Amino acid sequence: xxxxxxxxxxxxxxxxxxxxxxxxxxxxxxxxxxxxxxxxxxxxxxxxxxxxxxxxxxxxxxxxxxxxxxxxxxxxxxxxxxxxxxxxxxxxxxxxxxxxxxxxxxxxxxxxxxxxxxxxxxxxxxxxx
Length: 129
What we know:
The protein is α+β, with helices and mostly antiparallel strands. It is built from two helices and eight strands; from the N terminus they run βββββαβαββ. 26% of the residues are buried.
């Protein structure tokens, strides 16, 4: 099956954090790689409170999804990595504000995260035909 790369619309030339695509479309699915609190204009991680990082992370996820022609309403599944599982209530409140109607299926785990970030989120999205 053919694959198509989707980049964050503000990704700067030369911005490299690893050997991966921001998103990959295969058939009618978009797979969004784990996103963090990154400013794609400056190519810098933006550290802050769990609430601030969750907002910026979900905004990055949303921009990749929108670049593929979909919306957060089309998200089927997310996986969330928290550096500290005790941040769950604060992160969950922000996360909940981004999704209306039927919430995506979700897995949330505590993980060791790079660069001192507090949250990383990936998504699987159904694209409209």
